[in-house]
Amino acid sequence: MVMKPMKTLLDLEEGLRIVMDAAQPIERTEHVGLLEAAGRVLAEEICASMDVPPFARAAMDGYAVRAEDTFGAGNFSPRILELIEVIHAGESAHRSVLPGSCIQVATGAPMPDGADAVVMVEDTEMDSTKVKVYKPVYPQQHASPMGEDIPQGSLVLRRGVRLDPSKIGVLAALGLQKVGVYQKPQVAVIPSGNEILMPGEVLSPGKIYDINSYTLSALISENGGLPHIFPIMKDTLESTISTIREALAYDLIVLSGGSSVGERDMMLEAVQRMGELKFHGIAVKPGKPTLCGIVEGHLLLGMPGYPTSCLTNGYGILAPALRKMARLSPRSLASLKAPMSRRYTSTIGRHQYLPVRLDAGEVVPAFKESGAITSMADAEGYIEIPANVDLLEKGEVVAVLLF
Questions:
Q1: The pTM is what?
Q2: Most CB atoms closer than 10 Å: which of 2, 21, 342, 370?
């Protein structure tokens, strides 16, 4: 195979636009249990089929009373009521509160018939069956009406929201066991390269373990997708075409291969034969040898073989596209500003993602080389160096995006 260098590199912003245009939200839905629904995207509108709470309840420990029976109460002139019953949370009163009487209630207990307020226990004194009330209450004080939290018939959750813990709580409050959510994008993760082996196999001379399938799968899981790692693809055109054809059963195809241009040409030729090549090579460092194509309506990304390059473009290109497919909002990384610890020279004409760590309040470059996975593992975040900047001076303040 003749190895041809990449002559024209696509601008990073344009490459990302092409990928994002091709990434389409998943339409398939499924019903899952509440514990499985955490972090998923709601595929239906939820309207309340009941009131929450389903009954008026005490909001404090104390005594359910008719508020008017407490009017005029004070430290030196308490109102005295007859205690006729004691109820706890989960119990209901058997008697009604009549003029001059009260019922002891716990927080969350149903309000007895006839009562319209609760006197806090701290504002009372009990003597046998007599309760002295030293502070008046007004109607509905310390009492939650039926449906105060969620009125029956109200729209509670809109389609498209991400189900965080509080929203799972809302579903549980309505007594729902299952809920409709959008399915996660199914992603084919295809490693290639005659030099790689799966972890656990015995290394022989010239072989290395597959890193990219696992870093990409972790990234896919973290961004709403379901990764499926394929067997290592052989470095032949026939194997590339047959493997891509098999991967068309999935929503997104992600290939990572060796670093040689020859291997990249096989992927390029396979995509050109089977579909439409969108771009091959982007002006980014690390991660230049990145490929994007459309095969039978499926987005295909060919990621660089070097681990740091692969994972960097995973964060910069794969993750945003996947989140769109999964109907998740774009991820916003926390950031801070700090000075560079030393001068750093970049490559003019290529947008650079530089892995960095923080040391004594200064930004220290962590990048070693594209083949070193510890370039990312040792980093706490990264800085972006625009394509038109070739030098960062020592002490220059930069924005660090934190992992």
A1: 0.82
A2: 370
